[in-house]
Structures are given as C-alpha cells and as structure tokens.
Amino acid sequence: MKRRHLLGLGALGLLGIWAARPADEGRPYDDYFATLNALLKQQGGGVPLLVVDLQRLDANAELLAQRLGSKLPLRLVAKSLASDGLMQYLAKKLATQRFMAFHQPQLNQLARLFPDADLLLGKPLPVSAALAFYQQLGNTAFDPARQVTWLIDTPQRLTQYAELASALKQPLQVAFEIDVGLARGGFATPEALGQALTTVRNGQLPLKVRGLMGYDAQVAHAPPWIGRNRAFADSNARYQVFIATAQTFTDLWPAQPLLNGAGSLTYALHAQGETPLNEVSVGSALLKPSEFDSDLLSGHQPALWIATPVLKAQSGELPYLAHVQTALQQWDRNRERAYYLYGGRWSAEPVAPAGLSYDSLYGRSANQERVNGSVQTGLAVDDWVFLRPQLSEGLLDDFGELRLLRNNRLVGSWRPENIG
C-alpha cells in the first residue's frame, strides 16, 4: 500500500512538472502585420528593411504637440531621428527649427539641411571636433555665431572653446551643462557654475553665454524608495538653484536665456506640471522603440519596424543535440520550428508573428539569425518576420532607406543622405 501511495505521489509530481511547461505562445500574424507581410512579399525587394508607419508617427507627433501646447517649445533630437527625410518631415509637421545634435558630422549636415536652424549640442564635443565643424561648413548662409550653441561641462573645456573662438576670430555661443541628478558630468554645483561664469567675466572671454542644459533621465528610472514625483521635484529644484546663480551675472546672463532639458521619457512631466525649462528635447518618443515602453509614454505607439524575409523554415534540429530534440520540443512547443532570417543580430526583438524568440541554445547570427516558434505561427519561406528595435539611435544608419507605410500601402521611401 505504501509503495502504491509513493508511486501515486510520483505520478502526480510528474503531472505537475508537465503542467508547468511553457505555454504555446505562437500565433499567426494579426491583421496589421498580415497586411504588411503581403505588401512586402510583393514590393519589399527580398532584403531586410526598416519600415516607418507614417500614421503612427503622425499620431505620436500630434500627441507630443498637444501635450506641449504653447507652453514649451520643442527641440528635435537628431541622434534618434537620424534621417534627413524623417527630420525634415517632423520639423515641418511640428513647426520647429530647433535641433539637438550629438555628433560633429551630424551638426554639419543639420546646418546644410536647415539654414535657419537653431542647433544645440546635446553633449560636449572635443574642441578638435568643434574646429572640424567650422572647417567643413563651407559657403553658407548659416551663421554659427548665432545659430550654434556649444555645450560646456568643465572649466578646462571652457578654456579650450575660448581659445578656439580667439583662433577663429569669432565669438562662440555656449550653454553650460548642469548636473540635475543624473550624475553624468556637467557642473555639479551652483558654485562650480558661478566660478565658470566668473572666468568668462574676468577673462573677457570671446564667448556668448546663452543658457543651461540639464538632462533628467534619472527621474523616469527613480527607485521605489525615492519615487518619480520626488525625483522630478528634486531635479527641478536643482535646476532652479543653478538658474538663480546664473542670474546674478547680469552682465553675462541673457534676458531670454536658453533653459533646455527633459527628454522623451520626461517631457510629459514638464508639460503637465511646474518646470524651470523653457524648451524640451524629444526624439525617441516619436518612433517609440521598446526601451521607451513606459507609462510616461503610454499614449505613444511603436512606429518603427525591422522587416526581414524568412530564408529557411525547418524542424528545429540542434547540432549535437538530436537525441534530445524531441523531448525539448515536447517540453516547449515554442521550439517546434526554426526559422532562419535574412540578416540578424539587430538590437531588436521579434514581434510578429507572435511567439517567436531567439534561440539561446543555437546562438545569434548577423547573417542568418535563427528564431524559434511553434507551428501556430504559420510561417513559411518568403514570409516576413517583424522585429521591434530597442533603440532607433545608430539603427537608421544601418539601412539604405526607410520604407514608408500609410493606410496599408507602401507610399515611398526616405533615402540617404542620412544624418549619422
């Protein structure tokens, strides 16, 4: 009797383990991706593509404009939107000529594309990169003394840029990077900022002070024991103290200073509450890659996809593990099929059809990426798999063009020259 009892418990235990196996996540395309798959099978050209959904992009832009209203002007972040066509489209739609640049060639490209632009550096550049900007500018109506604001983060860089201004025989416009809690550099205290402004005043440096830039990405990721509301209030309070210090330099501080900050994850906080800023910088919220999945951007929609054809559809065999393959597939039905894609190793996750995942046992590949899925995905050779990028930064440069989707139709493309 005891033996039977133990056998019964063992059988129940095995049943419990079996019941705990992974659920079958596989699903066919939903209507949205089924339509896009059919389009790309006809018009995709058979190579990996980057697709921008213009309807979703428009909706994101309209939500951004609605939230900002007339309260906060917008500065578009070029590193997250690094395509000339995309930047021109959004600049027109959002009625802005303010751009934030993070790369010297990008700065030159913006100056050529937008002769009336107001360009602000989003990070401090080595002074040699700043010199390269002037050397490559060429004949243009763009006036860097009035239209570029360089970012100063240390006393050493302040001296270097003053020396550059003297060498160029023209003043440079500068803003000071301040640390409002991110702890990534910039002037850490109002006293340090005051010392820098004193240096400008006493040295009669050929620099025109325009304002401040303080990035507050830490607010969106505040730990539970701090909380977002407190983090936001603390960041704003720090910014206000820096402003108060700068305002004491009445001979240097402009009547209408530049007070830049925020970002895609925090712009809505500044738009909806009290803020020391008089403009915000936003880029990724318009395309919403997956690293920007946050309740702060819950109204925004993903608008950017990597699309790539299926080259091979197989049974999912693994090298050296054929003897356990059946057991693996019975345990996890999401390993029933293996699909090899054209290209791969992108910083992106497969999203359509649902239930696909990278194979951790097989490994990643930039040539023929392997993804697994159950038979329920319904995928066949020459179908397309759709991946959602984690970030748009750097990605747009990897593709020859952006294909444009609107109303379930491919309506054109934005080709290089890219802002990279």
What does the model show?
The chain has 420 residues and is an alpha/beta fold. Helices cover 35% and strands 21% of the residues. It is built from 13 helices and 17 strands. The protein has helices at 2-19, 31-43, 54-68, 84-93, 104-113, 127-136, 144-147, 155-168, 190-202, 217-220, 228-247, 267-272, 322-331, and strands at residues 49-53, 74-77, 98-101, 118-121, 148-152, 172-177, 207-214, 258-261, 279-282, 304-314, 337-341, 348-352, 357-358, 370-373, 384-389, 402-406, 409-414. Strands 1, 10, 11, 12, 13, 14, 15, 16 and 17 form a nine-stranded mixed β-sheet that branches. An eight-stranded parallel beta barrel has the order 2-3-4-5-6-7-8-9, surrounded by four helices. Helix 9 (190-202) packs parallel to helix 11 (228-247). The model has no long low-confidence stretch (mean pLDDT 92).
If you average the pLDDT, what whole number results? 92
What low-confidence regions span 5 or more consecutive residues with pLDDT below 50? none
Number of strands: 17
Q: How big a fraction of the residues is strand?
A: 15-25%
User: SSE order, as H and E?
Assistant: HHEHEHEHEHHEHEHEHHEHEEHEEEEEEE
Shape, please? Answer: elongated
* Helix content estimate: 25-40%
Q: Cα-atom Rg, whole angstroms?
A: 27 Å
* First-to-last CA distance: 76 Å
The structure class reads alpha/beta
How many DSSP helices? 13
Major β-sheet annotation: 9 strands, mixed
